[in-house]
Design brief:
Layout: E1 4-8, H1 13-24, E2 30-33, H2 43-46, E3 54-57, E4 60-63, H3 65-75, H4 86-112, H5 116-141, H6 155-165, H7 167-174, H8 183-193, H9 196-199, H10 205-211, H11 213-216, H12 223-230
Parallel strand pairs: 1-2
Antiparallel strand pairs: 1-3, 3-4
The structure holds glutathione (GSH).
Glutathione (GSH) binds near residues 12, 36 and 223.
Length: about 230
């Protein structure tokens, strides 16, 4: 079998998504750790957008974490991380899209905001997204099971979890403790955090707080920070 090589960074929540999938599927893979502050000279030849994660497998080179994760699901369908029924697969993808286009940008917007009025706006926007997930997601979808889609751990859990692991960053720098009125999300978080594939990739709150200091003080100059400022 062709080797699976993941260009990754320990700090990166998007790369963490793909490491969780590789681990959950029991796949052997090689990690190339990229220092995002000092990328190798040839990195753009591997990563067209200059970002991690990138997965190389045989003749395939795949980037964008949620695309990598579906590529892995297509190639290695066991254990499944998406439902088999098309309608349920569509629901999973709708949530992944919500996470990518609303929740994750909200997280960065709040962290990058440098004045208190903007921070207040993004704090309430992000809180609104949490309430939406609490009431439209967990309450209506997963009454039957511990994970987002019910009994089975899925790509939805994996797409969302890394920013919960980093919630301490928002509490520390932006005065946003996790809201007390989202008990289902809190329970979901505890269950996903305990999954062995998640445990295998987890970092401490102290690590994340230290790693995100440049986002919080406005000095982050990498591509992701620049793009999220414009988003
Ligand atoms: N949409 C991409 C985002 C990947 C991304 O933003 N990765 C960050 C690290 S967390 C990166 O490599 N940034 C490069 C930089 O900031 O220069 C994905 O889902 O894979």
């Amino acid at each position: 079998m062709a080797t699976l090589e993941l260009y990754s960074a320990a700090v990166c929540p998007f790369a963490q998504r793909s490491r969780i999938v590789l681990t959950a599927k029991g796949l052997a893979f090689t990690v190339h750790e990229i220092d995002l502050h000092n990328k190798p000279a040839d990195f753009e030849a591997i990563s067209p957008l200059g970002k991690v994660p990138v997965l190389c497998h045989g003749g395939d080179r795949v980037w964008e974490s949620t695309i990598i994760n579906e590529y892995l699901e297509d190639l290695f369908p066991t254990p499944p991380l998406l439902p088999l029924v098309p309608g349920q697969r569509a629901i999973a993808r709708i949530w992944i899209d919500f996470i990518n286009t609303r929740f994750v940008p909200g997280f960065y917007k709040l962290l990058l905001a440098q004045n208190s009025a903007l921070q207040a706006d993004w704090r309430s926007e992000l809180t609104r997204h949490l309430h939406y997930m609490e009431h439209q997601g967990l309450a209506s979808l997963s009454a039957a099971g511990p994970y987002w889609l019910g009994d089975e751990f899925s790509l939805v859990d994996i797409a969302l979890y890394p920013w919960f692991e980093r919630w301490a960053v928002l509490s520390h720098y932006r005065d946003l403790p996790f809201p007390a009125d989202c008990p289902r999300l809190r329970d979901w978080w505890a269950r996903v955090e305990a999954h062995p594939a998640v445990q295998a990739t987890a970092q401490t709150a102290t690590f994340h707080i230290q790693q995100y200091s440049r986002y919080a003080d406005g000095s982050a100059a990498g591509r992701t920070a620049q793009e999220m400022r414009r988003y």
